[in-house]
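anyone seen this seq b4? input:
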Amino acid sequence: MFQGAFPFFVPLKPAIPALHLAVYRLTNGRLSARLAGQKMLLLTTTGRRTGKPRTVPLLYIDHGETMIVIGSNWGGPAHPMWVRNLLAKPAARVQIGPRKRRVTASVASGPERERLWQVVTGTYAGYKDYARRIADAGEIPLAVLTPRTAA
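predicted toks r here
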């Protein structure tokens, strides 16, 4: 996303999620609930090796009762750590604005993934560019977050 249009962001890439996370938490999402017109949430997973909570800000798409989060890793070839954490431990939490919820995650595959990919790219076409860039490394994971109870 940022490499082509905004090359000056590349050195800042590691700091952007941490800054976004801090602002989101400080304001309960009032100042950072959207990025580039897309909705944002905070996803807290359990580290697959450490067992510690790991929170990341992510774009998401409402899809009925569920939310779709996209493991694009800024168009990089490796899956983000949060995807690996969800594969190991699918129980997670999300924060959308001030509201916190428990969710169960599943990574979409097969026909479900193809159907959801159409939803994702219909919402933000930039994901098609990410997918072309990493075609040799595989598919961009799509995680479906299904709410459980209040967190």
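The first strand starts at residue 34 and ends at 35. The chain has one domain: 2-150. kinda curious what u guys think
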